[in-house]
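Session log. Operator J.P. requested a structure for one protein chain; no other inputs attached. Running the standard single-chain path with token output.
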Amino acid sequence: MRLMFLGDRIVGGFSAYTKIGYETCTRLAKLGHSVAHIPMGITNRMGKWSNEGVLVYPSGREPWCEDVAVPHYVDWKADMLITVKEPWVFNRIFLEAINFAPMAIIDHSPVSPAITARMETAFKVIAITRFGQRELRQKDIQSTYIPHGVKTDIYKPYEKKKEEWRKLWYMKPDDFIVGIVAMNRARKMIPHMLRGYKRFLEINPDVKSHLMLLTNIRPTVLPEEASPRGVSDVGVNLLPEIMDLGLGEAVMWPEEKIMLEGFPEWSGMEVGWDMVKLYNTFDVLLNCTGGEGFGLPYIEAQACGVPVLSTDYAGGPEQVGAGLTVKYNDYIIINTPGTRYAIPNVDDMARALTKIMNAEPEKMRRRARSFVMRYDWDRIIEEHWIPFLDECESELRPLITKGGIKKW
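Structure written below.
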């Protein structure tokens, strides 16, 4: 088939959508599909060029590339346009006469009309979680479940390297290391997670522990820059909260310049900071956010043998194989569409961290690794993408025979 993807750049970026777009596009191209990609964010001003069998089109002048999506779609003679972004960022592309196939990235309940209204005209809808699929079904929108994946041949446990890599990240070898991997956005509830970590230290006063906070310590998106629809994208200055909570000595974070440049997934066994080395320094990943559409850090961490904590809300709990979910006792509305985001219970966070600390590390490591293999990219392509595209092809290009409709 002739597939066109629209999402974050697949070359030179480090976002979750970059990883998803790159793996999906390049793997489908290797299977024989003709694949093109339009990078969002005005990131390609060089014209068309090819990368690993994927034709990369120029970005438009609009951040979500709606000004060039249809012309590029026509130029590529695409069978369908698959978007790898929250659907509510789009203003008009869903109204065009194209085979629109959005990924339904839903991080709240009930699902916002700002999302469902953009799926009424879709050729196909891709649900990345069972939670999202249920939310859509309640609105009479049918979807196909295709979760995100992880490169389990790269993201894996390196227990013998743990002490060495902790030194690389300026961590003490015997500390209980709690990690947070999240963008500085209001929806991520980082100040709330800091309170949960503080409570953990209070009920475990003799524990030697540090928290590695992998985020921009100061906001990169200000209120006046946020989308009017938004996904709670406004960040906050976390430094005053860290100091006011008395966590100045307990919390670590990277230099802002390094965070803006981003960390590669893997830079080799002996050199450089990267995500695989970082995850392997953690004893637990604390990502009790206000709601996740999927939560890629959960499966990346577990692929490295690290247990995870998630708020018991939206898509996050589905990704918890080794670890715990934390209850929420209220919700908050912090964006224009009026969607609900959970407020995780601080005491439950502290108790969950304590349980993980007292669990058997090797048992948790084996459970995490075993669970996450269902998200291996080879399985995602084989068990989800190939059947989905076969179904699309039989509908778009049916082979009509005496015995019925068949695949070409």
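Operator note: DSSP finds 13 helices and 18 strands in the chain.
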